[in-house]
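Dear colleagues,

As part of the handover before I leave the project, I'm documenting each prediction I ran so the next person doesn't have to rerun anything. This entry is a single chain, and its sequence is reproduced below.
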Amino acid sequence: MPEHVSAPIVELRGVSKSYAGHTALENFSLEVRGGEFLTLLGPSGSGKTTILRLVAGFDQPQAGQIFIEGRDASALPPYQRNVNTVFQHYALFPHLTVFENVSFGLQQKKAPRADLRQRVKSVLEVVDLPGKAERDPNQLSGGEKQRVALARAVVLEPAVLLLDEPLGALDEKLRRQMQVELKRLHERLKITFIFVTHDQEEALVMADRVAVLNRGRLEQVGPAEEIYARPRTRFVADFMGVENFFEAKLAGKENSAFRFETKSSLSLWASNSGGLAEGSAAILAVRPEALRLAGHPTNPAACNQFEGEVVESHYEGGSERWVIQLATGERLVVRRVNVPETQIEGIRRGSKGLVSWDPARTLVFPQ
C-alpha cells in the first residue's frame, strides 16, 4: 500500500439504488482511502458503474449517504463535488484541438490565461503527450486519445478520479501498456483513483485494493494478493478463476490436516476447517495452477493425490490446460505455465495422469 494512503476520502454508508425495479445497490457500504488506487471488480450488472455515478453526482441514492472529503455530498450537484470522471469512449470534442480539449474545464472555471496554459502544458507532459497540443483528436491513436481524456480530467486537480472501464476500447497490447501508464500516473499525482473493470487480471495488476461486487453487494474488499489467494466466498473464488469445486462434509482431523468427504466418497484434505464443525457441509475449491500433474506417483502416501484420465488438453501459448476425469466422476482442471525444461512426459488426451495438490492450497467455504 502506498505511503500516501490515509483516511477515507469517499465513503458510502448503507446506500441503495434501483432503476425501474432493478436493484443496482442494496444497503451498500464502502470506504475509499485518500490516495489509494481502488478497483471495483465484478460482472455486468453488479453495481460498479452505479457507484461511480453516485459518487460523481450523476445519480442520487434512494437510501443512505455519500461522503466526499468528510462532508455529506449525497444531494450535491456534480459541479460542487471535487471529483472528475474518465469514460471508456473518451468523449473528446472532435472539433477542438488537444489543448482546447484539455483546457475546456479550466476555461469554464475562468482560470487566468497564463495559469491555464501552464497547467495544460504540465499535464500533457505528465501523460506523455508533449508536442501534441495543436493536434485534432482524429489525428491521434486510441492510446493517445485516452491520455487526452485523462489529462482533461486531472488538469482540474480533483481529489478523486473516477475511471469507468477507460481501457475497454483498446486492443490487448495497448491495454497492457496503458495499465502501466495509469499506475505510473497515479503514483505521480498521488490522488485517489476509483477504477471500474470486469477484467480480473487488470484489477490484480493495477489496484492497491480490490472491491469485488455481486448483484449490488460487496462480497470482499482487500489487497489484490488477498483477493486472489484467500477469497472469502465461493462467488469471489469462482470470479477470480478458481475452477475446481467440491461439495463435501467435514469428516474429522488427522495430525494437522482436516479430512472432507464428498458424496462419491472421495477424501479431500485441507490445512484448515474453514471454521466448520465436524459433519458440517462445505464447498472445497482449488485453483487450476495449484494442481500438479504427473504420469506416475511422486509420493504414494501423499494427501490429495488421484489418478484419472486426460479428457481434454489445451495449448494456451504461455500455459497449458488439462481436464482430468477421476474414476469417481469428478473432473479437475489443471493449468501449468509452459517452461520447456519442465515438460511432462506422456500426458496427452486419453492417457492416464496423476493429479495432486498440497492441503494448504485447498480453499474451504461454508455451503
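Helices lie at 48-56, 98-108, 113-126, 142-154, 172-189, 200-206, 224-229, 234-239. DSSP finds eight helices and 20 strands in the chain.

All the best with the project,
I.
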